[in-house]
Structures are given as C-alpha cells and as structure tokens.
Amino acid sequence: MNSEIERYHREQSPDHQAVCDLLASEADARLPGAESKIWHGHPVWFLDGNPIVGYSKQKAGIRLMFWSGADFSEEGLNVVGKKFKDASAVFNAAREVDVDALRRWLAKSIEIQWDYKNIVKRKGVLVRIDRPAA
Q: How many domains does the chain have?
C-alpha cells in the first residue's frame, strides 16, 4: 500500500481505519495497474490518469466515492447530483461494507468511466471513455 495512504489511515479512528484498510486492500487487489495516491487530501485510485475511486473522512463516516458510479446502476451507491457522474456510500465500520458489492463496483469502475482527467480542458463537459470488459 502507498505510504501516504497508510499515513492517512493511521490518522483515522480505529473503526474508520479498519474501513479504510479494507477499501484500500480491495482497490489494490481489484484494480491492477491503477495508481494510488493522496489527491486533494484523500486516497484516490487512477487509471491512465483518470480518477475512478477514492474515499474520505466526512462527518457521516468514511465516504467511498466512484467518479462514474452513477452509471453503475447499483443499489447501495447514492447518486446526489445531476451534473457529474459520481456515486458514493458511507461506512462507519468494516462490517458495514458488503465486500461482494464492493468488488462489483470496483469491476464496474474499470469498465464504466467518464473522462474527469480532461474535464477542465473540455470546459466542464464529460465524455465517456470506452473500455472493454475485463
């Protein structure tokens, strides 16, 4: 695991650290070739420079966010806005994480991507990235 991400985990409460450890372990295992780093203050995984999944400490708990998750059509992921394609779930204990669902979401995060890497260059317009199923 990335040392910056390990440091981020150590700064969390024991319950939240366990959630972060589980999320990072699954992301590292299920996203081969992804780059992980602390980005805007929290752990994020990138494919070809495009952010696909990350998590952050929020008032409600550890918020797991998939940048393109609105198109996953998955129960358990909350879609809030209309402008972007993100969806998220919040956890306060590792036992709350449905690992099978998490693994499905991570698989979909490879297949279903919107190009956030170039959103500024495209003046806020998101374009779908076509990726073959794994």
A: 1
- For Cα atoms 41, 46, 48, give the angle at the middle one, nearest 5 degrees: 140
Q: What is the pTM of this model?
A: 0.88
Q: What is the CATH number of the domain that holds 97?
A: 3.90.1150.200
CB 82 within 8 A of CB 16: no
Q: What distance in Å separates the CA atoms of residue 5 and residue 3, rounded to the nearest whole number?
A: 5
Q: Domain range for residue 27?
A: 3-130
Q: What angle do CA 97, 20, 16 make, to 5 degrees?
A: 85
Query: Each residue of 4-29: pLDDT tens digit?
Result: 999 999 999 999 999 999 999 999 99
Is the pLDDT at 103 greater than 90, yes or no? yes
Q: Helix H segments across the chain? A: 3-10, 14-30, 99-111
Asked whether 23 and 12 are in contact (CB, 8 A), the reply is no
The span from the CA of 109 to the CA of 71, in Å, is: 10
